[in-house]
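Standup notes
- HV: blocked on the assembly model, inputs below
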Amino acid sequence: MHAPSKFKKAFMAQLLLSLRAAGQASKSMGIRERRDAVRLSSDVAMAMASAARARAAPRSAAWARALVARHAAERRNEALMRRIMGGAGYEMAAAAARSRKGERSRRIVRRSRRVCSGAGRKRRSSLTASGCSAMAAARRMVRARLQVLRSLVPGGEGLRGFSLLTETLDYVVCLRTQVELMQCLCKGSRPQLG
Amino acid sequence: MNCGPPDQLPPASAPSCFLNLNWDQSMAAAAGAGDHLDPALSSMVSSPASNSTAAPATDGLALHGISPQPQYSGTPLSSPPKLNLSMMGQFHHYAPPQVGGTGPGGLPILENLMPMGHLDQFLADPGFAERAARLSGFDGCPGGSGYGGAIPGQFGLPDGGPVSALKELELGNGRDESSVSDPASASAEMALKGPSDGNAKKRKASGKGKAKDGPGSTAAKDLTKGESSGKRCKSADESNGADDNSAKGKATQSNSENGGKKQGKDSTSKPPEPPKDYIHVRARRGEATDSHSLAERVRREKISQRMKLLQDLVPGCNKVVGKAVMLDEIINYVQSLQRQVEFLSMKLATVNPQLDFNNLPNLLPKDIHQSCGPLQNSHFPLETSGAPLPYLNQPHQGNPLGCSLTNGMDNQSSMHPLDPAFCRPMNSQHQFLNGVSDAASQVGAFWQDDLQSVVHMDIGQSQEIAATSSNSYNGSLQTVHMKMEL
């Protein structure tokens, strides 16, 4: 009961800080760029808050690192991310992004290996299909959905069943908090418009 | 033997049907073995009350004590099979007067029995073990081959082989002894008895602490004892299934024996700490028990546990049956959240074009004034309803800071503004927001007044507080401060 509120406060503080940075950076931006900046800063705030939480209590926040790395991989985000995270933090994130690229190539190698050894796999799968096709179909469906989930959760590409679900759990909780806080901010900002 | 255990059984069967199962098997197996042991054991279990009180706890521990760590060999603690052996040895020698004389309680008996259990040197003697294995005639025991590798003179037995062999020796002896025809077994008994007597005095002091856990260890021991030659592999595998949840998931046949021993040993070392980081997996009847399927089962169980958590988290996922559909729901939810973030960032970018939240405190008092009523209305029902998950709190109809504030209150669920300590956290919160927004101090003062007015409106509704909660509130705010400094 206690931790989420604490997390929410930390997240709020981080969000306000990073939005302020984005606001200073986006004085002369178009609406689209500004939206991207807001998106970026809220994502980074979420990642940083959850990483701080992960440091406090031992839990994995691989998705947070992956999220920051994904943003850091894009060159145009560099200035803003430097501003939000500080120089050292950005360097780390950029390094992570570079290593992620290596990871991706490794994954491609793995996939190609799988393709190469696909003959045996196919034989086996046909065997199971002949045995009980319904179960095989169900398994295939689950596998396809897990693949989709992998693409949705940042950093989930390299994960398998259990760790993927753990990351999804954490990510969903944080995403929910993010939505909640951003809704609050929108409501707080509305009177200015009117 | 047949009448003795059921006295212990009912309490033992509650925490573990697994033990129970083995008990039944042992009943069947040892039916012919220990006819003459009946009086001895029944006299030993003469006080079912004490046993029944002690048994559940220790049994639970015996089950829970299965630790994944593989080192169990070097400790001089008496492991249950040995205890078993000593007891049986006593019974072979018709020691009932000794047993009966120790008193009505089961514990003193066990205490007396315990020192006899230290036949470690003998157990570790390979020659003796070989003889024992030959005597018992159960060559099918998987650990038996590894028995020769036992290091002589070591106290703990490095693998399950000797234990099982000696156990079987016990069973065999039980059969043989009705007509004491085998000279070799008699000599083995003599050999058993001699050192046990010699060691009894020496180990008595160390036996004290162990005697406490007697019933549990006897239960564990009986579990292992229950393996007759026919059912041996199966029950071994069952104990294996119960034990093998170590991360490695390595389960070999001899390992199962070790598992039984480990179990008993952990039950003897109960007071220090029961290990916690394991998952209890049990192979049911007809399930595969090799290491791979066990590991697979553990993995599947963990995944389903995660799925259950996600099911709680994702709305509308409760009624869904089936993994694929549930995953669909989860995917939809994650996608909708991501889209919502996208939309909100767009909205934020349009609503607040400068992204200038510095003037947020300027907006705040107005918002607080507007949202005082709804704030309370939304605040207290939530508090009373008790959301099942902490993150299930709906976003409030307030301004951002009021929202975070009241959420904090919700989650603490007890804010008492009358307490002067409460004003301090409020001030610090206020300071912290000031730090974020660089607001001017007079604005802050104004805002502070407003916040306190909100707080005072809450007074009438929540009257109970613990000073600790306000303290913790303060503490959390300080951590926020620290994070802000970063």
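- HV (later): unblocked. Chain B has a mean pLDDT of 46. Residues 183-211 of chain B form the longest helix (29 residues).
- Next: hand off to the docking folks.
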